Amino acid sequence: MTDSHTPSGRSARLNTGVAHNARVWNYWIGGKDNYEVDRQVGEQVAGMIPVIRDIARADRWFLGRAVRFLAEERGVRQFLDIGTGLPTADNTHEIAQRIAPESRIVYVDNDPIVLAHARTLLTGSREGGTDYIDADVRDPDAILEHAAATLDFTRPVAVMMLGILNFVLDDGAARDIVRRIMAAVPSGSFLVLTHPTSDPEVGGEGQVAAMNFWNENATPPITARSGADIAAFFEGLRLLDPGLVSCSRWRAEPDSPVVVPQYGAVAVKP
Q: Could you give phi then psi for residue 259, rounded to 5 degrees?
């Protein structure tokens, strides 16, 4: 793993001439932490799949509902947020520590801009703990090793994997990552996951062409999966109501936004 704490590490990995997912996503949700190349690619993708901004917002709102549900109704006090993205309003630690100041949160990302912002903005409550790890989702052992400095893996942990497994193109590798991480957390832990889909019943037929364009013009490469493939990530876990649904509709109000081609679910480890 590249050491992002050295200038050479940062400069080697920071390429502002190619659109990057964290920055384009930030652009889609109205943030300012992006470059011209990110905005150009973001606009091109939005032209191909106009619902993309709805997807980005729905994914963010799903995070808020899921964290509130787990903190308020399930008493979760530890969160491992893998694939953090650029900080915005109501990040995981802010929601959790607003409900329970003693909550402990570890953020994981491998983008140097994300990490730089995290060090500045992701400061938690005095009673709890907030940390950030420079690691790749493909290296779960490193994630777990470093997270253990902040989290107690003998107590339940909510593992947050929002919009991250779509960057692991191999289905078997993606399932193995989830299995290895969930094997390390105890009974009563949770998996919180969102993932783009190509399923036409939620409007996913437009995703494929847009993702092909993305893979030719931006980084990292991305893939959509069917609902059945996404459901496989929850093998051995118990899905909570309402199950695997468009993330805009998960425990949402009756007047919730448009259905988006991004599934979301929360499951508990028996």
A: -65, 135
CA angle 154, 158, 159 (to 5 degrees): 105
Cα Dmax for the chain: 50
Of 88, 106, 91, the C-alpha closest to 33 is 88
- Which pLDDT score is estimated for 17? 78
Tokens of 156: 């339940």
CA-atom Rg of the chain in angstroms? 17
> Which two three-digit tokens encode residue 239?
């899905």
d(CA 148, CA 181): 12
CA distance 9 to 15: 12
Q: What does the alpha-carbon distance between residue 207 and residue 224 come to, in Å, rounded to a whole number?
A: 7
Which residues make beta-bridge pairs with 263?
A: 195, 246
Which residue in this structure is represented by tokens 């509902």?
Answer: 65
- CA pair distance 62, 193, nearest whole angstrom: 10
Structure tokens at 161: 């994997």
CA-based nearest residue to 269, from 155, 192, 184, 182: 182
Kindly give, in sequence order, each residue whose CB lies less than 8 Å from that of residue 137, ignoring residues fewer than 6 positions away.
Answer: 82, 83, 108, 110, 143, 161, 164, 165, 167, 168, 177
Rounded to 10 degrees, the C-alpha dihedral 183/225/136/70 comes to -50
Task: Tell me which amino acid residue 87 is.
Answer: P
pLDDT mean by block of 10 residues, the chain; 270 residues: 30 64 84 88 92 91 96 98 75 93 92 64 66 92 97 98 96 98 98 97 91 91 96 98 97 83 98
Q: Which two tokens stand for residue 48?
A: 């191909």
β partners of residue 245? 264
Rounded CA-CA distance 147/14 in Å is 24
DSSP state of 197: B
